[in-house]
């Protein structure tokens, strides 16, 4: 990542801009901050860009990247599904 602007939704003002970060295989990352600080917005932006054929400038993804993301609202799971089915 290189100076990636993070906003809560498209068309909204930028909450913050990331610094330069390079993650390598096996790295672990903690995203910490106050409530409403943009942690979920950053993860949502990264997830959207990982699934976009032409990501934003400032974000370079390894061609063998296989991301996983689970939204905190639990909206991605059917209520009747078991943990294994989900």
TrEMBL record:
Pfam family, one: ABC_tran
Keyword tags: ATP-binding, Nucleotide-binding
Keyword Nucleotide-binding among UniProt keywords: yes
GO function terms (MF aspect): ATP binding; ATP hydrolysis activity
InterPro entries xrefs: ABC_transporter-like_ATP-bd, P-loop_NTPase
Transmembrane segments: none
Keyword Secreted carried by entry: no
Superkingdom in the source lineage: Bacteria
Residue span, ABC transporter domain: 23-52
Protein known as: Putative transporter ATP-binding component
Organism whose genome encodes this protein: Klebsiella pneumoniae
């Amino acid at each position: 990542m290189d100076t990636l602007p993070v906003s809560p939704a498209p068309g909204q003002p930028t909450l913050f801009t990331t610094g330069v970060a390079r993650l390598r295989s096996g790295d672990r990352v903690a995203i910490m901050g106050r409530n409403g600080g943009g942690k979920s917005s950053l993860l949502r932006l990264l997830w959207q860009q990982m699934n976009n054929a032409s990501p934003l400038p400032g974000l370079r993804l390894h061609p063998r990247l296989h991301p996983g993301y689970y939204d905190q609202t639990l909206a991605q799971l059917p209520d009747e599904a078991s943990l294994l089915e989900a």
